[in-house]
Design goal:
The protein is mainly α. It has one domain: Rossmann fold (3-Layer(aba) Sandwich). The protein contains 18 helices and 5 strands.
Length: 381
């Protein structure tokens, strides 16, 4: 057996152990199609890396097991609820854009409107037809998510400042996409150059189809319009519109020097916990390359899209006049904003200022990139 074969065999054994752990947690054994096993093994191999700290190893292991639990639950719920195949997803409103351009704030503000349904965080790791909200505390998946987030913020308290996550609030489609183990989540958080090169060469169309099927499952008993968000849809609009042909898409924009610096800070927080030598100066070049390619792909797709299917929103405009920006979105896509909902949105804004958990600061040079380099690839935003 060659060294490479031995490494592959060891990685497959580690992945098999993770699958066994997920089955123990759920009592389920059917993970669905086996196409997830190879990328799972690629990421799982990193668990043996001497670069990882004990905290990093535990975090990566839990990330992988939670994703496997989600696969098991989703496959089981698809079987239990055969009607999901007929569920239509009509004209979803989808937010995307380079990270740190205001996608999360806009997403959570719009989610105040009861005409929308979204992917609550706990349902991304335990996909099932969404129960009544009063039943959530009794759901195993909800309790698991609450406990996991408590541990996460205890481990990385600064994450509350840069990207707070709440179990019963809407979250990103990325949390569903990771269930197939072909997701930007893994190489952006962990140092996985071999996996990253493989991942960026993949056709994500099948993942987007499974995302749509998961959404059909979660919204099985809910007729409201879907409100979705994922920065990573920026760069994958072809796949997005193949899965959601009549989607209404909002793309957020910000000075890329600020967005890439802020993203570097978010990712560096995890790196510094997960690695003895976090090499944070490698974060910037990787992210700049990834998102500049995403911008090129988005620009190509926009050339053939029908006029009006995409609306661009500037981060500064949203920051200065959030409700005015909401009205612009609603007017453009033919949505109705009631006075009552506008008032509720104002109340949400007052309760959730940008610096709610402290100021977010960063230095661009720490992440191995310069403002000039960013602007040469991403322009002015």
């Amino acid at each position: 057996m060659t060294t490479v074969q031995a490494q592959d065999h060891a990685a497959e054994a580690i992945a098999a152990g993770l699958c066994e752990e997920a089955s123990r947690r759920t009592g389920l054994v059917d993970f669905g199609p086996d196409d997830f096993r190879m990328p799972l093994a690629m990421v799982a191999a990193h668990l043996t890396s001497p670069l990882l700290s004990d905290v990093g190893r535990a975090s990566l292991r839990e990330d992988l097991v939670v994703a496997l639990v989600g696969r098991l639950v989703r496959e089981n719920e698809w079987k239990k609820n055969p009607g999901w195949q007929e569920r239509k997803i009509d004209r979803p409103l989808i937010i995307c854009g380079i990270p740190r351009t205001g996608t999360t704030a806009l997403h959570k503000l719009l989610s105040v409107d009861p005409q929308f349904q979204g992917l609550e965080h706990w349902l991304t790791s335990w996909p099932m037809p969404r129960p009544q909200r009063t039943e959530w505390p009794q759901q195993q998946g909800y309790r698991n998510a609450v406990a996991a987030l408590e541990k996460l913020f205890e481990l990385i308290p600064q994450l509350r400042i840069s990207h707070e996550i709440v179990a019963d609030e809407v979250d990103e489609c990325l949390e569903i996409l990771r269930l197939d183990f072909i997701a930007n989540r893994f190489p952006s958080i962990y140092m996985l150059p071999d996996y990253d090169a493989w991942f960026q060469a993949q056709d994500e169309t099948p993942l987007y189809r499974r995302l749509a099927d998961t959404i059909r499952l979660i919204g099985l008993h809910d007729n409201r319009t879907w409100l979705l968000k994922n920065p990573g849809h920026f760069g994958h609009l072809d796949e997005l519109f193949e899965a959601f042909p009549d989607a209404r898409v909002v793309i957020t924009h910000r000075d890329p020097v600020k967005s890439l610096g802020s993203l570097g800070s978010v990712l560096a927080g995890g790196r510094q916990m997960f690695y003895a030598d976090p090499q944070i100066d490698t974060i910037g070049p990787r992210e700049l390359t990834y998102w500049s390619r995403a911008k090129e792909a988005t620009d190509r797709t926009r050339c053939w899209l029908p006029a009006g299917q995409i609306l661009d929103v500037d981060h500064l405009d949203f920051h200065r006049a959030p409700i005015g920006t909401v009205r612009k979105i609603y007017d453009h896509f033919g949505l109705t904003l009631s006075d009552e909902v506008a008032t509720s949105m104002e109340a949400w804004l007052a309760s959730n200022p940008a610096d709610k958990h402290g100021a977010h600061s960063y230095r661009l040079e720490d992440y191995g990139i310069t403002a000039d380099r960013i602007r040469s690839l991403l322009g002015e935003g």
